[in-house]
Amino acid sequence: MRIKLSLVTALLVATTAGAQEGTISFPAAVSFDTGDSWQYEGRKFRLFGVQACIRGTIYRAPDGTESDCGMQSVASLAALFSTGSIGCQPVGRAKDDASFVVCAAQIDSTTVDVGTALISSGAAFAAVFPAGTPVSAAYAVAERTAKDSGSGLWAGSFTHPVSMLLNEH
Known about the structure:
CATH architecture: Beta Barrel
Number of strands: 12
Helix content: 25-40%
Number of domains: 1
Mean pLDDT: 87
Largest sheet: 7 strands, mixed
Low-confidence stretches: 1-20
Shape: globular
Strand content: 25-35%
């Protein structure tokens, strides 16, 4: 109960703070740092609740070909930015002063949540709190669905970034 209440309170505070700053629109030509963060006009932005594969870690495709797992995530985020207009709502600040954002992509006549799109396609993962609980239950479900269907990175093998960050690998 305490975790749920803390999470609801944190999301309410984050949503209120974000609403004060307003929606930020991004062009396709932002500078991508990772598969869940980018820089634009001197500011750093990070998708709230999303964890990309860590750059420098190995992804092994089903055919045995190896590549940088983090760069696979970067390519997916960049592709999403290039397919439509992206608008993000700030929801808080990270310890490194990056703005946590929740984003929507307008693709043709459809609006999609960027985090859900990345996670459900197997290009990124649901972030977790230090205790291991998901930041977003919806993102955790999207990750489980991608894993079960072998989508994206789940088709091959890699070290899950959350296990690395929690020192469980």
